[in-house]
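As the next step, I selected for study one protein, both as residues and as discrete backbone shape codes, as given directly below:
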Amino acid sequence: MYTSSTERMKKIHIWMGFSQKTEEEYNEYFNQDNGVSLFYKDLNIDEEYDEDFIGIIPVFDEAVGVENILKNEIPVDEEEVHKALEECSKLNIKTVNAVFYLTDANVVINKPYKENYNGLKYTGE
């Protein structure tokens, strides 16, 4: 069934944490040049992702507060920021140096979640 781009972008999946990888190693996780990326393999999806729906923020040189990220780097509705902050608090995430997100409501991430996605934790939808 076809879902319009606008409908697909109504939900956002967010991953946050600290990456110890180089920028090149970090970005390789999303590489689709040779087929399905390691990212989608971690999600148990056997197809390529649509690059229009993913936000891969470059690794920060220093730790950044989660609230700052949610309000300034990720397209989260202002009214939803508190929910995302609650999830981060549950996961003991206060500062991060790496973030990526997927704005694709067609993607379902099954529980239990993996503990590590390119060094980051899935904070939820």
About this structure: The longest strand covers residues 13-17. The longest helix spans residues 81-90.
